[in-house]
Design brief:
By secondary structure, the chain is α+β, with helices and mostly antiparallel strands. The chain has one domain: Gcn5-related N-acetyltransferase (GNAT) (Aminopeptidase, 3-Layer(aba) Sandwich). About 30% of the residues lie in helices and about 35% in strands. The structure holds coenzyme A.
């Protein structure tokens, strides 16, 4: 993972992936939604790069003492290379930097890659939101209670 870096997304970063956002990543969020996230004081968008090429991003939103993972996505050609894990480590780091120890999210119940990523980091299924993504398309609510003393162990264990 030496040549991969994670930093806060800039508008320049976002503009550079605008033409490929829906084709190379996924179509959950569009350009305008992401752009508005960059402007919100309680939202944080992290971007993973291989050298200068953007290969993934994660968006989290701080709601008082809880962080919500709004989206995490890796470019299709770069999946299963541990970039999602790298982003997740940085998301967890950011939570602890902000003294937040609860990270929660919704995920489609059939999104096995994402659910496995979350389970790898210790997220637990805490509930279901029925028809959250439309008819017969439920969301699983998953939450990670970050152990204040677990951080270093977590970071050294995950690749
Ligand atoms: C979910 C996603 C971000 C994972 O990113 P990634 O870089 O491929 O993930 P990693 O390589 O770090 O894999 C982490 C773990 O996820 C699981 N995983 C990843 N891809 C998987 C797949 N295709 N099938 C099953 N499990 C998978 C594995 O358990 C893996 O752990 P391991 O490598 O130790 O075995 C990526 O698949 C993606 O962008 N999906 C589309 C967007 C999306 O659905 N985001 C979630 C919104 S809630």
């Amino acid at each position: 993972m030496d040549n991969f870096t994670v930093d806060f997304m800039t508008l320049k970063d976002l503009n550079s992936i605008f033409p490929i956002l829906s084709t190379d990543f996924d179509d959950f969020w569009n350009y305008n939604t992401l752009k508005s996230e960059l402007d919100k004081p309680d939202s944080f968008v992290l971007v993973a790069k291989e050298d200068s090429k953007i290969v993934g991003f994660a968006d989290i939103w701080k709601a008082v003492d809880i962080m919500h993972l709004m989206d995490i996505v890796v470019a299709k050609d770069y999946r299963q290379k541990h970039i999602g894990s790298l982003l997740m480590k940085k998301v967890i780091n950011l939570c602890t930097e902000k003294n937040i120890y609860e990270l929660t999210l919704e995920v489609r119940q059939n999104n096995i890659p994402a659910i496995n990523l979350y389970k790898k980091f210790g997220f637990k299924e805490i509930g279901i939101r029925k028809n959250y993504y439309g008819a017969n398309n439920n969301a699983i609510i998953m939450t990670l209670y970050i152990d204040k003393n677990f951080k270093e162990e977590l970071l050294s264990e995950k690749n």
